[in-house]
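Retro notes (design track)

What went well: tokenization of the new backbones is finally stable.
What didn't: we kept losing track of which sequence belonged to which structure.
Fix going forward: every design gets posted as structure first, then sequence, in one message. First example under the new rule, 242 residues:
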């Protein structure tokens, strides 16, 4: 049997060239993909900073119970005005306190036999107050309680930082330092180097710290131990690997 070499080459050569071309294009495509999606390493870290708070947030509620709704609202308005007068007299800006809720509901008592008896109308108003002078906060609170008497209740009190920007920056630097140290350690173990930063994401926590009212044994008035407040910043950072 005689093989026609010329005819065989005419058929095989185009097929071979096609395979070579497909291989080259495939490698080029893969190379572009790696450039668009480089190897990366991602780490998260939480940084902290501790500071002494310099302000106090206070939540108070004025409440009265009267036989009629008109009387309840009237007496509530008097107590609310007393709260405002104390705050204004102690240089608390109107920007630093606000009314957050006003309610008027009927109040009942229930006997052993299940019979309901009408007591009166309960009128309530909530105030959120910021005391920027923490050294004078105890005095202000004592005056509020004296003015409102049994009609005023303190719902919550917490310390916070008026300007947390410097503390947050310190926590951010701490988080970045930790994340970078981890990334460099792993890159070295893999015989690689860190390249440029690809992405950075951040979340922070600067929640006010709850406090307890402390009455002095000497009768000098309410005082506070401000303590320290911990602020945190969590970063998630991706580096290119080389």
């Amino acid at each position: 049997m005689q093989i026609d070499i010329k005819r065989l080459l005419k058929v095989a050569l185009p097929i071979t060239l096609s395979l070579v071309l497909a291989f080259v294009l495939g490698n080029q495509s893969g190379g572009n993909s790696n450039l668009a999606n480089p190897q990366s390493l991602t780490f998260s870290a939480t940084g902290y900073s501790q500071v002494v708070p310099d302000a106090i947030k206070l939540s108070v509620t004025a409440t009265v119970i009267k036989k009629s709704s008109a009387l309840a609202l009237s007496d509530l308005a008097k107590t609310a005005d007393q709260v405002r007068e104390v705050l204004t007299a102690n240089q608390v800006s109107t920007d630093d306190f606000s009314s957050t809720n006003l309610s008027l509901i009927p109040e009942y008592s229930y006997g052993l036999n299940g019979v309901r008896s009408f007591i009166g109308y309960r009128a309530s108003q909530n105030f959120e107050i910021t005391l920027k002078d923490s050294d004078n906060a105890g005095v202000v609170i004592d005056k509020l309680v004296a003015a409102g008497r049994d009609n005023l209740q303190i719902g919550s009190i917490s310390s916070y930082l008026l300007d947390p920007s410097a503390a947050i920056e310190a926590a951010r630097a701490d988080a970045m330092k930790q994340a970078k140290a981890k990334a460099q350690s792993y890159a070295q173990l893999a015989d690689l180097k860190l390249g440029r930063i690809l992405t950075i994401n951040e979340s922070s926590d600067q929640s006010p710290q709850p406090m307890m009212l402390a009455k002095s044994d000497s009768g000098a008035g309410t005082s506070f131990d401000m303590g320290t407040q911990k602020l945190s910043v969590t970063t998630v950072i991706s580096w290119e690997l080389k």
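Added context from the reviewer: Residues 91 and 133 are 9 Å apart (CA to CA).
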